[in-house]
């Protein structure tokens, strides 16, 4: 099972082959910058990749990002907001040697709807304002600071997945149950555990039709997979089967392995693929990347006339 429609031009070619296709260092540097990989060059070198002799970006802006991020997280924790850190920020603090190696702006905060009001108050007090409110389909709010000098964008998300095929299977409460305390950067901060983080990255890859994942997103999953113990991997296998998303996890891990040479055993991929033979969620693999197919599938999968109608209208607009 291959996520061809969601490869963002990577064409499932190994990263090293893609990089060597550029004849000059300046072209390679431009490619790395477009894929948000320039700050991650040390991580790529640590994986054994030969990287071009280009200047690694000044870490000062990313250090400022981390500082602003910590301020937001510290205030939320101090206020008693129930949330779990996920996405690029979680990867930055747990998968990379130093957080500045992971370029990012969004701070993804998974939380129950009941925590949103307190979170909004905290963010408003810090000078943030709502930049994008929830839509009829997406249950999240994106916040930006009134000053453009603040390089963070908190994202309050109270719906774990958008597509009906996934939203019925996964909830915020389930994600919070699979969260635990992080070693840093703030006492009391919680994030998705290793297994659920790998699972959620796979789900996100297919959950949004318009999302265009960069290679840095695949690198996150490569590093997250390498951090799993053998016991963790068996738990992931079991969880994917139980929740009916073995095919999505298999497809995503296969893409990551094809790009970065991630050491995912064939036996595990084949086992996931075997379990996915009758999973409805595998239909997302071919639908992601097309507005019409994604929302048409959602309209046929949603429960209730109103969500079905919303997805159908969105499909026809495409």
In short:
Helix content is 51%, strand content 9%. It contains 16 helices and 7 strands.
Percent strand equals 5-15%
- The CATH level-2 architecture of the domain at 58-192 is identified as 2-Layer Sandwich
Q: So what's the CATH class of the domain at 58-192?
A: Alpha Beta
CATH topology of the domain at 58-192, what is it called? Beta Polymerase, domain 2
Distance between the termini: 26 Å
Give the helix/strand class.
Answer: alpha+beta
Low-confidence stretches: 1-11
Q: SSE order, as H and E?
A: HHHHEHEHEEEHHEEHHHHHHHH
Number of strands: 7
Largest sheet: 5 strands, mixed
**Helix count, per DSSP?**
16
The level of helicity is 40-55%
Rg to the nearest angstrom? 19 Å
- Summed over residues and divided by their number, the pLDDT gives a mean of 88
Shape: globular
Order of strands, main sheet, comes to: 1-2-5-4-3
Q: Please, could you describe this protein's structure?
A:
With 318 residues, the protein is an alpha+beta fold. Among the domains are: 58-192, 2-Layer Sandwich (Beta Polymerase, domain 2), CATH 3.30.460; 288-318, no CATH class. It is 51% helix and 9% strand. The chain contains 16 helices and seven strands. The protein has helices at residues 15-20, 25-34, 41-46, 60-78, 87-94, 116-125, 164-167, 172-177, 194-207, 215-227, 230-242, 246-260, 266-275, 283-287, 291-301, 305-317; strands spanning 84-86, 106-110, 128-132, 140-145, 153-157, 179-181, 190-192. A five-stranded mixed sheet has the order 1-2-5-4-3. Strands 6-7 form a two-stranded antiparallel ribbon. Helix 9 runs antiparallel to helix 10, helix 12 (246-260) runs antiparallel to helix 13 (266-275) and helix 15 packs antiparallel against helix 16. The longest helix is centred in the N-terminal third of the chain and has 19 residues, at 60-78. Residues 1-11 have low confidence and may be disordered.
């Amino acid at each position: 099972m291959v996520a061809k429609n969601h490869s963002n031009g990577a064409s499932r070619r190994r990263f090293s082959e893609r990089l060597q296709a550029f004849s000059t260092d300046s072209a390679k540097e431009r490619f790395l910058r477009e894929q948000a990989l320039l700050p991650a060059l040390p991580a790529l070198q640590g994986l054994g990749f030969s990287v071009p002799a280009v200047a690694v970006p000044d870490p000062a802006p990313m250090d400022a990002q981390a500082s602003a991020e910590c301020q937001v997280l510290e205030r939320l924790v101090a206020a008693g907001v129930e949330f779990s850190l996920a996405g690029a920020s979680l990867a930055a603090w747990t998968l990379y040697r130093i957080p500045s190696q992971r370029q990012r702006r969004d701070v993804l905060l998974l939380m129950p709807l009941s925590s949103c009001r307190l979170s909004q108050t905290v963010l408003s007090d810090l000078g943030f304002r709502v930049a994008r409110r929830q839509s009829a389909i997406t249950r999240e709010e994106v916040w930006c600071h009134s000053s453009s000098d603040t390089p963070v964008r908190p994202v309050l998300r109270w719906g774990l997945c958008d597509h009906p095929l996934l939203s019925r299977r996964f909830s915020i409460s389930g994600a919070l149950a699979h969260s635990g305390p992080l070693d840093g950067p703030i006492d009391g901060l919680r994030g998705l555990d290793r297994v659920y983080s790998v699972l959620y990255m796979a789900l996100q890859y297919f959950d949004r039709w318009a999302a265009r994942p960069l290679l840095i997103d695949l690198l996150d999953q490569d590093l997250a997979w390498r951090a799993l113990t053998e016991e963790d991997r068996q738990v992931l296998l079991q969880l994917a089967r139980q929740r009916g998303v073995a095919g999505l996890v298999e497809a995503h891990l296969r893409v990551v392995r094809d790009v970065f040479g991630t050491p995912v055993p064939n036996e595990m991929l084949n086992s996931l693929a075997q379990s996915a033979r009758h999973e409805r969620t595998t239909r997302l693999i071919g639908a992601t990347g097309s507005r019409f197919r994604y929302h048409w599938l959602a309209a046929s999968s949603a429960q209730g006339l109103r969500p079905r109608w919303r997805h159908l209208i969105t499909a026809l607009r495409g």
